[in-house]
Amino acid sequence: TQVLRKSLQRGVVLSTGSFLVYEAHKLISGFAEVHASFKVEDVIEQADYLYGSGETEKLYRLLVQHKNSDDAELLWRLARSARDLAQLGSTSAEEKKQLTYDSLEYAKKALEKNESNFAAHKWYGICLSDVGDYEGIKTKIGNAIIIKEHFQRAIELNPKDATTIHLIGIWCYSFAEMPWYQRKIAATLFATPPTSTFQE
C-alpha cells in the first residue's frame, strides 16, 4: 500500500510537472508569436520612416536582412528599396544590374506570399519593366502585356492608388506613341503585340 501510494504521488508530481512544462511552453510560444508580429510591424514602421526621409541606403540595409521573410508587406518594400538603390547615381553599373534582378525576385516572392497585395502587383510590374532593359526588345515587348496585367490587378485591389493609375497611363501612352518601325518589329515578333491609344 505504501509503495502504491508513493507511486501515485510520484505520478501526480510527474503529471503536474508535465502540465506545467506544457503550459510554460504554450506561454513562451505565444509570447514568441506576439513578439514576432510586433517585430514585423516595427520593421515596417521604421522602413516607412526611412523611405519618407529619403534614406535609400539605410532603408535597403534594414530590409535586406529580412529577404527570407514570409511577409509580403516586408518583401514588396524590399523590392522597392532595391530598385531605388539601383537608380542612385552612385551605384555602379554591375551593382545596378544585380539590384534590378534582385528587386524582381523580392517582388515575385511578395506576390507568392500574398496574391491579394496590391503593392506587390505594382512593384512586380515596375521591376519587370526594369529587367526588360537588360533582356532586349523581344523580352521587353513580351513583358509589357504581363506588366499591364499586374498594374490592372493592383488597381482592382486598390482603385485609389494614384501611382498605379499613373503607371498604367504611362504604359498606354508609350504604346500609343510607338513609332511605326517599332510597331513593325513588334508585329513580326508577336502575333498580337501590345497596343494602346491616346484615348485609352
UniProtKB/TrEMBL annotation:
Keywords: Cytoplasm, Cytoskeleton, Repeat, TPR repeat. Belongs to the RMDN family. The keyword S-adenosyl-L-methionine does not apply. Pfam families: RMD1-3 (PF21033). This is Regulator of microtubule dynamics protein 1. The gene is Rmdn1. Interacts with microtubules. It is found in: Cytoplasm, Cytoskeleton. It comes from Prunella fulvescens (Brown accentor). Its main location: cytoplasm. Gene3D superfamilies: Tetratricopeptide repeat domain. One of its GO terms (cellular component) is mitotic spindle pole. It comes from the Eukaryota. The keyword Protease does not apply. SUPFAM superfamilies: TPR-like (SSF48452). GO terms for molecular function: microtubule binding.
